[in-house]
Structure formats: C-alpha cells, structure tokens
Amino acid sequence: MARVSGHKAKAIGARSPLGRRFGERTGVELAKLGLETEEDLLRHYPRRYVERGACTPLDVGTPGEPVTYIAEVVHLTKRFARDRRMQIISVTISDGTSTLPLTFFARQAYLASHLERQLKVGTVAMFAGTLKQGLHGQRELTHPEVEPLDSWDDEETARREAGRPVPIYGATTKLPSWKIRDAIRTVLDPLTEAEVLDPVPAEIVSRRGLMSELAALRAIHMPEDKRDSSRARHRLRYDEAFLLQTALARRRADLAAFDAQPRPAVEGGLVTAFDAQLPFTLTDGQVAVAGEIGADLAAAAPMQRLLQGEVGSGKTVVALRAMLQVVDNGGQAALLAPTEVLAHQHARTIRALLGPLGEAGMLGGSSEGTRVALLTGSLGAAARKAALLQAASGEAGIVVGTHALLGERVQFADLGLVVVDEQHRFGVEQRDALRAKGKVMPHQLYMTATPIPRSVAMTFFGDVEVSTLREIPAGRSPIATHVVPAGNARWMERVWSKVAEEIDGGGRVYVVAPRISSTQEEEGVDVDASLTGEGEQKRSPGATELVDGGPDSTANVEDAAAWLRRFSGLDPAAIGVMHGRLTTEEKDAAMAAFAWGAVPVLVSTTVIEVGVDVPEATMMVVLDADRFGLSQLHQLRGRVGRGSKPGTCLVVSWTEAGSSSQERLTILAETLDGFRLAEADLEQRREGDILGAAQSGRATSLRLLRVIADADIIEQARADARELISEDPNLAHHPELLIAITQLVDPDHEEFLDRV
Ligand code: ADP
Ligand code: MG
C-alpha cells in the first residue's frame, strides 16, 4: 500500500508546478502533503506557533511519528565507529525539563566538524525527524534535520525575525517544517496586493473590518505576534465561511428558480377532515411549523425545508398534514424511509392516523379520502404490482417506501411532494432519483431526529430553510437515565434483576449492544446495513462472555441474550434478538413479537435506533454505551417512555470515573435536551463524524473554520452571501468569487453541498 501511494506521490509531485519550481524531490515530498500548486502551498497554514526562545516539550510524540522540536543542546560527544570509517556524534537536547538523545553519523571529517560547530552546547535550534524507539525502549532521533534558529544572512533580517513566533507546519520526515516555511516564503514574499485575488468583495471586507487577503496570508505564515496571527485566522475563517455560504445561497437561488406547482391549502379538504378527527390537539410548535410548510407548498418555487425535532416531537403528524395538502390539490406524496422496518411502521402509523380517510374506495372508507400504498424491496410480485399500479394511476395519494421507491419502474401520476425521513441516510443521487419522478420539481421536505445545532445547520444545510419542533407533545413520559459501571458486579446483577422486574410489571425492555456477535464488526450507526446485509465485515474475534468481559471486549447481542437467559430468571422464550443479519421477515417477526408483548425483551444492535415506536417499551439497557455518540444514545433512549409510563435508561460502561467518556455519559444522564447533547458531542468530536462520512469536501474547503466555535462568523457570512446573491445572482460582477466557488463545487464537493 505504502509503496503504491509513494509511487503516485512521486509521479504527481515530480510533474507538479511545485516540483518544477522547487525540484523534483521537494515536489514529491510536498505532494505527500497534498500540495501541488503554489495556491496549495499558501493555504498550507501553520498548525501552531512556538515562541522563539521557548522550547517545545520533548516528551510529546511517540515512536514512528514525525516531530519538530525547538530545544537546547546540552551535551555533545564525538567518537569513531569501531571500524573507524565514520564518526558517531551523540547529542543530547533539552527543553529544560526532559532530554532527548540524538545520533548523527558522519563519514567525512568535514561533516563531523560542521555538525560539531552547528551544535555547540547552548545552541537553541529546531530538530525534526521521525522518533525511533531505541534498544532500551528510550525515544531517540537519528539524523534529525537541524535548523539553527537564527541563521539569517544579515543583521536586519535577524533583528526583524527574532521577535516573531515560529510557525510549525505539518511536515514529512524528509521535508521538515522550516523547509516548508522557506518554500512558502519563496512564493509569498514577492506577491503584491494586485496579484492576490480576494474572493470577498471589497465592500464586505471594509464593512466587516477585515484585513486584506495578502495581509492575512502574510500574517498567518509570519505573524509579528499572537494578535497578528489571530486576526489573520479570523479573516481566513471568514473567507471559508463566505465561500461556502455563497455557494449555498446560489444553490438555493437556483432551486428556487425551478417551477413547482403551487399546492395551496384547500378549504374543507382532507387536511380539515384530518384535523377534525385527530385524537389530540397540535402543539404550538406543530402549528407554527405546519404554517411554514403550508405556505411553502402554496408557492410556485419548490419547497426545500428541513424539519428537525426530537424523537417523538410529532414530525410525522406534521409531514402527513403536508402530504394531505398536496393530495387536496390532486397531487401525490412519497415518503422515503431508510429501512424496511421504518417504512412498514410509517405506513402503519399513517394508515392508523388517517383511519377511514386513508381507505378511499374500500368498504367503510371515506369517499373524499385517499389510499396509502407501501412499496419495499421485500414485497411479493403481486403486492408489488398492485402498489406500482396504485402509484402510477394516482389512486394512492400517499406512497411510502424504501429505496425500492427509486426504481425505474416506479411511476407517479402526479408527484407533488417528496418527504425524506432521516435524510442524512440517503445519498444525493437517491434523493435526486425520487425528485425526478415529478412532472415538475416536487416540493421537498426532509426530516431528521438528529438535532443539528444552528451553526452546523447553516454550514451544511445553508441552502434549505430549517423548521424545528422543540417541545415534546404533552403526555409523553419522562426518561430517567443512570450510568452503571460495568465493572461493578453487584450493580450489574441489579441491572438484570430490574429487567426481570420490569417485565413482571408488564413492561418491555430493549437491551442494546454494539455488536451482533463476538466475532463481528460493530454494527454502528449504519441502519442501511440492516437492509443490504453489507457493512458486516469480519473483525478479529473479541470478547466472549459478558460476565467475564472486561474493558477490552465489546458487548454483543448473542452473548447478552445468552447471559440474560441464564441470569435474569426470565423465561428464555421471553428474550428475542434483532440485528442487521436477520432476514426482513425475521426482523419484522421479532419487532411484531416485541410490540405485542409475546417476547417482551429485545436484545438488539442499533437497528432500533431510528423511529421504532412501541409505546409499551419502558426500559432500555445500553451495553458498552461509551462506544456510541451522545446524539446516538439520546436517539436510542427515545425508544422508551413513548407511552403513558415513564421510561428508564441504564447506560452501562467500563469507562473510568473522571474520564472524558464517563463525563459524556453523565451529561446524557443529566439532560433530555437533544440540542445540548449534539453540541456536547461536537465539542468532543470532529463535526464530520456526527453528520456522517459524506462530507468529502469538508477537509479541503474548511481548513480553519470550526462549526461550533465560529458560529458568529458563519452567521455573518451567511447574511453577507445571501445579500450579495440577491443583488447579483449569477455573480456577473464578482468574477473572482465565481472562480473560487466553481473550484469549491467541483465533483468532490458536490456531495458536500448536497447534504440535503
Ligand atoms: P416523530 O416522528 O417526531 O418521532 P411522531 O410524529 O411519530 O414523532 O409522534 C410521536 C407520538 O406522539 C405519536 O404516537 C404521535 O401520534 C404522538 N403525537 C404527535 N403529536 C402529538 C400531539 N400534538 N399531542 C399528543 N400526541 C402527539
Ligand atoms: Mg417519526
């Protein structure tokens, strides 16, 4: 592998503009860092700075890692190797606290004396290389690159540079930080203001009090002081936010330019009849959001709206009203769900909520009503044909389904609204495929139960409007969450006896484990895998017994079920299992047996994470809870307390008291606020993880911008970008900006911008 990528880097690096400018070898090394053009080089910002004179801690870094240290030479000895053919120079450097041995070999005498001169005791210099583990386990550097700190040619430069922080760059073993700095300076120093294209319009630069683009580049690579570099960072962060927001604002404008068919509220139609028969009143939040959606549907531009709300906040009811408004106008709505289980459940819920209104043409059905069709991959040929016909004829006003909805043979009479549940589980092409089934572009509503902090929504979903349901409808029961240390046998016994008590009291209990079996990959967050059976690669065998398990093993469904059967005192027939390796029929059967109460304990992977609604479920035990993100745990525990009885969630973990993993679980126990948890998650993890892996473009386009910490910048940039696009939709008057955005929206980035 390494060799292959090395070849690739070589081929690219040698031919790259940087290879031509700085020589083939340097070009190859720069290519390893992903740097091929001068622009790349200028955007290779320092990772950090060190104050000149201050040493960097020498105990940071593990063997195998490239490191750069600033340290003082405290010892030097020179001796001949046994064969006297070369000299060995041993040097010790110190940061004032710890020391590190360096070894140099010199075949030529002049090299040896050069090193001796360069590394006189008391010299402070930069040392870079790859840490090695010595014979006795000690860390050491062999033949590091050395750069004396003050090797300036003339005194004036020396004086000017002396006060500056030293930038430390991401480097390779062969190309240390200071050589990268020198290459950057070679490109940067001769640049003039006129040569640096500023993507941000001058008017905004001055209104926001930003430094010029060139000044920012100079200040980030060679700051006078800390303030200077932080101003530069602010400017460059604004650039990133602004480019992204402008691209999103343009997309928003482009989509809005498509014609959509207005589907306004119809007096005395299905929506009115539906509201009249609802067994509850809508919450204020539902009314407000329904109003926003209703207005969007009435417009001639396609709706692009993300509806986010806690699990159980009543999104489905709101979405159903939107679907009915479209049906009232003679159109159809499609609801795309990520899994078979969810599609079935949606169809069931929607049919139940509609009652006779969803049984048009059937005995006892309402004559003004419509029909709900269900289309999934597992349907038999006859049922599939019937569903296809209902969709194509328009007989079904609402078509619920999985990926099967995207098939070529699926046609609609008049598709007016596409609702995508858990939208982040679908790729762009999938959503586009469904959208393309409308005669004109359908209105689009995306739903997610993963709360997204506002600044994240603005970064990643900046081109859609966001509606949020914040309250949980009255009548929902509270969930009490407790953290249980897995290492405490007494507590664990208590957990299992509580499961049995809960069942005796008529409750239902979920037990969740990260893996299916001890020899199996963690099932993780990917619900789709449960459909396709993919994503279940083998990993090295893990733990076997939960009871003997330790911090190094991962809990799994098979073992947890076996253990429950043995130790909870429950009838083995009361314990069911659920995971992605089961067939669709097995999954449906397991879900159904749990929902009826025939099998009141369900041991499962995270396939139950999303949307599963069994009101009788009162308790959940999550094993190895620290393997999951906070938002995911919150999502999981939302499966209980959905009925009239309060819920209990026991999160079991081997994490040590006081560790950051333990702290996260404590936050989970303390709050039911999904937004707070999403933020806590983001504070600890890279934002990419939380939104899934599809943000391929983020790494290259967002170098400095941090979605939580820079919320203010993102907000400003969005306002500026929207204003600019409303004045100059095609950026005809801002060619530099257009170029910058076109680069941003290359095929790699499309996915990124197209998160929704
Ligand atoms: P979500 O899709 O956001 O998870 P649902 O729409 O499935 O939430 O609603 C969760 C439960 O709450 C359902 O049983 C639903 O019938 C019920 N529900 C929805 N809105 C209300 C309301 N305003 N008052 C009472 N119960 C409601
Ligand atoms: Mg739902």
SSE inventory with pairings:
Blueprint: H1 2-15, H2 17-22, H3 24-32, H4 38-42, E1 48-50, E2 66-80, E3 87-94, E4 99-106, H5 109-118, E5 124-130, E6 132-133, E7 139-142, E8 145-148, H6 155-162, E9 166-168, H7 177-188, H8 202-207, H9 213-221, H10 226-257, H11 270-277, H12 284-298, E10 304-309, H13 315-328, E11 332-336, H14 340-354, E12 371-375, H15 381-393, E13 396-401, E14 415-421, H16 428-435, E15 443-448, H17 454-460, E16 465-469, E17 479-485, H18 489-504, E18 508-512, H19 528-532, H20 557-567, E19 575-578, H21 584-596, E20 601-604, E21 617-622, H22 630-637, E22 647-653, H23 660-670, H24 674-684, H25 687-691, H26 698-701, H27 711-727, H28 735-744, H29 747-753
Parallel strand pairs: 4-7, 10-15, 10-16, 11-13, 11-14, 12-13, 14-15, 17-22, 18-20, 18-21, 19-20, 21-22
Antiparallel strand pairs: 1-9, 2-3, 2-5, 3-4, 5-8, 6-7
Helix pairs in contact: 1-3, 9-10, 10-27, 10-28, 11-13, 12-13, 17-27, 22-24
Bound molecules: adenosine-5'-diphosphate and magnesium ion (MG).
The site of adenosine-5'-diphosphate has 15 residues, from helix 13.
